[in-house]
Amino acid sequence: MIAKGPTIRRPKVVASSERLGLDGRGVRRMQALAQKYDRGPLMLRTPGRPMAMILHPDDVHEVLEGSPEPFATAETLKVHALKHFQPKGALISHGAERSPRRRLNEQALELGAPVHHLGARFTQVVEEETEALLAEVRGRGGVLAYEAFLDAWFRVVRRVVLGDSARDDTALTELTQKLRGDGNWAFLKPVDKGGRAELLDQMQAALDRAEPGSLAAVMSQLAPAPDSEPAQQIPQWLFAFDPAGMAAFRGLALLTTHPEHLDTTELRTPDDQQDPAPTRPRLRAAVLESLRLWPTTPMILRETTTDVAFDRGVMPAGTSVLIFAPFFHRDDRHLDFAHRFAPELWDRPRTRADWPLVPFSAGPGLCPGRDLVLMLTSSFLAAILRRATLSLDSHRLDPASLPSLLNHFGLRFRLG
Ligand code: HEM
Question: Which Gene3D superfamilies match (predicted)?
């Protein structure tokens, strides 16, 4: 997992993991540990600092609901990874500093609203960029590969987050990718302070420009509380839209190989639906399934701020707590849907009483971008599938037993 790149994926390692089935082996190893150690949590003797692995579904809920006290989101390894591009981001802030930063993210991204108030504008951006993407792909032989898809997706992201003037600012995306690459090395690589300052200056400039129809404009109008550090929250948005692209592209693979799950009424243009920003629940469920089957945040980390009592003993303060999401999403000892596409799982909100499926985390640390991500990715899928019939050329997916990893870099679709 770590070799694949926690903050930005390394294509060669992802390809080898897919070939060798390493993700499936990881889940089987976790099953063996749960067999041996029962409920856990399992304390590991890791060099430097204690670490615990969560083995029981109830403890997943316990830890996530208990954030940020006593289970802080600002876990030490994560702090070292994210400090390369946003040392004051909500996720790695704690105590009095965390609350205003978290609140600012929730407000600007509109967590809890299925459609952001700028939804109509964002849908229009998606439609324009999809039109351009498919024209380009058709002009080049009709094969859609990840590179072209991601370029178009990042054009959408830059327009949505920073404004139309950033549409072609690929240098900014390269800078974020460079700093995320440094983040993969956490404390093993010194922070590129010049690069980081340049990134944060550009974020501040976007807030100052406040282009109408952008998230930067929404954020700049929120009258942020002292200490909320608006410019330091935006790098995570740019960074986290990258996994959203992965999830959408894999979602396309799921839908092309499970056409019976495609509800064509969700593909109608926003005008046809007489709704400028439709919700598209089936397409959202496809993205959620893509994230359940192949989580883009496979390791959710917390750190205990005090000693915490579990049934089987006390977990000391300062322990890094690991929730390995693929284990809970693909545990075929308990889940009959473990390895198949099961969009019905998302027909209703999942609660603490349910088995933990946590692609966006849960509890007070739930991803504040969740609703926006689902809105944008489902719009993007609708815009593509309305304009083209796709067939998956690169992979043969067995619906009864989907692979433990789907290398998004290697996916190729032929446009009909
Ligand atoms: C497929 C796309 C995404 C997935 C699967 C995802 C998942 C997650 C997860 C699992 C966490 C918790 C991480 C942890 O506790 O260590 C998280 C946190 C966060 N995400 Fe997302 N995310 C996605 C996209 C986005 C986007 C596009 C944004 C912003 C526009 C965003 C903003 C955030 C923020 C600000 C946090 C920190 C929350 C906090 O500190 O409480 N995410 N996300």
Answer: Cytochrome P450 (1.10.630.10)
Q: How far are the Cα atoms of 6, 227, 408 from residue 199, in angstroms, in the given order? A: 20, 19, 27
- Please give the distance, rounded to the nearest whole angstrom, from the Cα atom of residue 103 to the centre of ligand 1: 14
| 260: amino acid identity, one letter | E
Which domains are delineated in the chain?
11-415 (1.10.630.10)
Quote the percentage of the chain above a pLDDT of 70.
99
Res 273: pLDDT: 65
- Average pLDDT of the segment spanning 87-109: 96
How many DSSP H helices and E strands does the chain contain?
A: 14, 10
Residue with CA at minimum distance from ligand 1 atom 37: 91
The closest of 374, 395, 397 to 258, measured between CA atoms, is 397
Site to substitute for ligand 1 among 161, 357, 367, 408, most atoms within 8 A of C-beta: 367
The 10s digit of each residue's pLDDT in 318-347 is 999 999 999 999 999 999 999 999 999 999
- Give the tens place of pLDDT for each residue, 149-182: 999 999 999 999 999 999 999 999 999 999 888 8
Task: List all residues whose CB is within 6 A of at least one atom of ligand 1.
Answer: 73, 78, 90-91, 102, 105, 109, 236-237, 240-241, 243-244, 247, 291, 296-297, 300-301, 359-361, 365, 367-369, 372-373
